[in-house]
Write a structure and sequence with these properties.
By secondary structure, the chain is an alpha+beta fold. The protein has a single domain, classed as Glutaredoxin, CATH 3.40.30.10. The chain has helices at 8-16, 29-38, 54-63, 85-93, and strands at residues 21-24, 46-49, 72-75, 78-81. The relative contact order is 0.23.
């Protein structure tokens, strides 16, 4: 499953609309596990590569004590660092 590339501007719009946003980066094993775990539901989320968007990386650092820890997932406006896939899946199923 590949995810479409979005920007931080797309992410902020999705958050405003109650969507799920996943901040990730290439080569992240935890991100790959999340994609595999949620399956086709991944298409419902807005995915932002923090290595391709400095504003997105800055956001992730702001909610992770200065660290670029991914996946960072925003659900209902709340950021979760490396949440359980079941939490993300439940949010995407709504």
């Amino acid at each position: 499953m590949t995810v479409s590339r979005s920007s931080q501007a797309d992410a902020l719009a999705a958050i405003d609309q109650g969507g799920v946003v996943v901040y990730h980066r290439p080569g992240c094993g935890y991100c790959a596990r999340l994609i595999r775990s949620v399956g086709r539901l991944a298409e419902r989320a807005t995915w932002v590569d923090i290595w391709a968007d400095e504003d997105a990386a800055a956001y992730v650092r702001s909610v992770n004590d200065g660290n670029e820890t991914v996946p960072t997932v925003v659900i209902d406006g709340v950021a979760f660092t490396n949440p359980k896939p079941s939490v993300v899946k439940a949010a995407l199923e709504r």
